Amino acid sequence: MADEPQEVAAAAGAQPGGTVEIGDSVVAKIAYETCREIEGIHALGGATSRALSGLRGGEHRTSGVAVDLRGEVVDIDLTLVVDYGRSIPQIAQECRDKVRSRVEEITGLKVKAINVVIGDICFAEAGAVEPGGQG
Question: pTM higher than 0.85 for the full model?
């Protein structure tokens, strides 16, 4: 899961004399923002990544997202915090569907797999996790 851009000439419709490179961080940001739009996902990242993000100050825009980009194929790992009372299987499937669609639409890459880990659950009255994946 390197941060080095991968060449995606065919997927991005490169013209003769040039290529398009898409970095892992671009895919991670697309996945992160897509997940934040899904109702029932309280935050992204496990407790450790949220704590480290809080120490760094501000919001880390790819917390809870890991990307493995190999040529024109990408695997994405997501760690989510869901709201208590929500259907975890439904949220995970909606997350897979929307992230796959958005990443493929924006980048032209083929999403091979999206692995979802539920790292925590948020009870509204406890307020243990701040909304939006912030530490």
Answer: no
Residue 1 belongs to a domain: no
Please report, for the chain, how many H helices and E strands are present, in that order.
Answer: 3, 6
In CATH, what number is assigned to the domain containing residue 108? 3.30.70.1350
Q: Report the pLDDT value the prediction gives residue 62, as an integer from 0 to 100.
A: 82
| Residue 118 placed within a domain | yes
- Element holding 69 (H helix, E strand): strand 65-70
Q: How many CA atoms lie within 13 A of 16 on its CB side?
A: 0
Number of structural domains found in the chain: 1
Structural domain contains residue 79: yes
At 52-103, the pLDDT tens digits run 444 445 455 788 999 999 999 999 999 999 999 999 999 999 999 999 999 9
Structural domain includes residue 91: yes
Q: Strand, helix or coil at 56?
A: helix
Half-sphere exposure of 128 (CA within 13 A, CB side): 11
